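@channel sequence for tomorrow's demo:
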Amino acid sequence: MNEPISSIMTKEVITINSNQPISDVRKIFTANRIHHLPVVDDNKLTGIITTGDLWSSETAPADYGTTKVKELMTTKMATLEPHQKIGIAAEVFLENLFHALPVVKGDELLGIITSFDVLKYQFKKEYPSQELPK
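structure tokens (generated this afternoon):
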């Protein structure tokens, strides 16, 4: 848990723009089997949208094509920096019931770390020869 977040974070992050329709978010979630999507505008992290945001919104699926990401995204979000330790990410996840955190330098998105990444990291330490599904 004392290794840097950069050692386990996803660096090839799928993102979306705040002006895109929610229908695009749903397609990305389904096609990529993910639940958290950083919102990037002009190369800056401006928010995050999650499956929870979709579920808790009162937006009807019929309106997903006209509703913009910026209407549902969270703009006040916790972030971490790549040099911070994996244990810090675990602590933030446990204390706040988050499941994903953007990894940034300033307002530039460098990656994303999820609670699954931390779980997989710890599992591999305990069972190094065990094969995990991709």
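heads up for whoever presents: The beta strands are 36-41, 44-50, 100-105, 108-114.
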